[in-house]
Amino acid sequence: MGFLLSKSMDQNFQKQQEFMLHNARLQMERQILMQDQMRERMVAMQIAWSREFLKYYGAFFSLATLGLTVGAIKQKRPAFLAPLVPLSFVLAYQMDMAYGTLGYRMRGEAESIMASEHDRLPMPHGTPTYESIEKARRARSHLTSLLEK
Questions:
Q1: Contact (CB, 8 A) for 64 and 84
Q2: Helices 84-99/2-75 angle, 10° precision
Q3: pTM, to two decimals
Q4: Which InterPro entries is this protein grouped with (predicted)?
């Protein structure tokens, strides 16, 4: 009788472990998907910011080009056109970021770094651990309780 009860408990324990493992896997997959969606939204916001900035910078660049060109012609001094060189580099960069392939090139370079220069990637003090996070939390809560007194 004890053997049957023990066998039944072992089976229940095994099923419970499988269920917990399945739930942990589902939770991890959801966490990964959520983080990926958050990353996608951040990248979309960066691209949108670049496009919006490009509109304002493009207007500034157009006015500066017009003003400097008119000044260079009226004063007969081509040196007035010199500021257009660095301004055009900034414009080209913003256009590439907003509508070009800069994002793809950056991702390719990042993948190359991850593959061939992995030793450059570790964070200072290594990957955070549960213990390091708890230590920081306790220190902060200790400071908070001291400040409240």
A1: yes
A2: 150
A3: 0.70
A4: Plg-R(KT)
Q: What are phi and psi of 139, to 5 degrees?
A: -60, -40
Domain boundary assignment for the chain: 2-148
Looking up tokens 């039944």 gives 8
Task: Give pLDDT tens digits for 27-81.
Answer: 999 999 999 999 999 999 999 999 999 999 999 999 999 999 999 999 999 999 9
71-79 contacts at long range (C-beta below 8 A, 24 or more positions apart): none
Quote the DSSP letter at residue 136. Answer: H
Euclidean distance between the first and final Cα of the chain, in Å? 62
Query: Which residue, among 41, 45, 43, 51, has the nearest Cα to 94 in the 3D structure?
Result: 51
Query: What letter represents residue 39's amino acid?
Result: R
- Over residues 109-123, the pLDDT tens digits come to 999 999 999 999 998
Among 9-13, 16-20, 47-51, 119-123, the range scoring the smallest mean pLDDT is 9-13
Encoding tokens for residue 148? 């409240």
Hey, which bits of the chain come out as E strands?
A: none
